Predict the structure.
Amino acid sequence: MATAMYRPALGSATTAFLARKHQMLIDGQWVDARSGQTFAVEDPATQEVIAHVPAGDKADIDLAVAAARRAFETGPWSRISPAARQRLVWSLGDLIERDADELAELEALDNGKPVTNARRDDVGGSIEMFRYMAGWATRLNGEQIPVSSPGDWHVYSLREPVGVVGQIIPWNFPLMMAAWKLAPALAAGCTIVLKPAEQTPLSALRLGELILEAGFPDGVVNIVTGYGETAGAALAEHSDVDKIAFTGSTEVGKLIVKAAAGNLKRVSLELGGKSPAIVFPDADLDRAIAGTASAIFYNQGQCCTAGSRLFAHQSVYDKIVEGVCQEAGKLKVGHGLDPSVNLGPLVSNEQRTRVVGFLEAGRQEGAEVVTGGKVMGDQGYFVEPTVLARTDRTMKVVREEIFGPVVCVQSFDDSDLDAVAKFANDTEYGLSASVWTRNLKVAHMMARKIRAGTVCINTHNYGDPAWPFGGYKQSGWGREMGKEVMEHYTETKAVAARL
Ligand code: ADP
């Protein structure tokens, strides 16, 4: 890789956005932080500063929550019909589609991810999320309940929006995480204060412009940029926030739970993972190799569902290790804005340092580095796609979430599915898993035995707006997407009328 990282040219819309002053969206207005402070946003491939955004803190969160409360209680949003809400949410999908290329560029620049993936998955997935969730706005009905109490009764339930929602999102899929959070909350009729990750605030601010263009009333969506320990913490503990939805690390998830206890706000959490990919001897090995490599290298391994523990049956172990290494070698590494690149930098220096620390720990504990294992170049936060073999359950690299392009391979020789599931379940996480086999019984029996919120068969990192997604164990609370997510954003009210 060249020493100086070349940044491909940006389109005119992205250039124009970057040249604008970046402010936060509060009550329908673009504003600076009350403190006047800003922080720099970096291109992780070149380490150049690409923007400055407001460093919002408690004072700004207070204003944003107050605006969201007013919009929820008394604004036009509180009287809007479900059909009008549905149209607005849908139209946000259309606006994202109109500006898809610009949003994909921003995402590649800010996060480092390959622009081709950003266009297809991050932007494409966000469009579909708004469109799918729009439909729920007109489908959130309660029920008539047949009670047996003496007398004549008409008993029914209503589903009402939960109220003011705080949403804290991570940096690995900045736009898509905003879409996952905003779309269902808006469909349900909530109002929102969204805090994007400090590493990647830009696409959320561009989305804020689209939200105003779509015509959402003032205060319905507020976007506060800032650090987790200040703005994020203030939002999590705010006594006038009814619900907090968080995606990020398990460690911060636990802080969110504590902060939420003050007013017992509702909490949903989508946290870390250490997901197994299990290859049985009868699998289509070409597919399994390509699929398990992509499971860990996609998005530079910065996926909560990343297939970071690869279990290969001992009869195919050597082939799998060799194949995944070959796949790693095929990846074109470079600036995410280059459409031919398929592995970008990690998001930040901090993240690279963390991943490098894990690589050192792996070596010290006796893992064999079959390919990769080092940082790349002297500019940008690049780490080689890495395969660690001869790993075992006691190693730090096997137990903890690395969130980088590093897979730990282990072999198994058991045909007893319970024994195989025991390997897979030997983790405090339970977000996702994949099973690679041609045997239907093995596939579906394993799906039952694995303790994880999602199980993929002959694929990994699957997603769809209709797919309920979330974790068992320390991978989280609740499900996002699908009809399940609407539970997060609604309260059930039971009404009993004596006739
Ligand atoms: P990562 O470790 O991958 O950066 P984090 O869990 O730290 O993930 O960050 C996810 C989101 O949580 C970001 O928006 C971040 O600003 C926010 N955050 C970090 N610390 C806190 C905190 N103490 N309270 C609330 N939000 C936080």
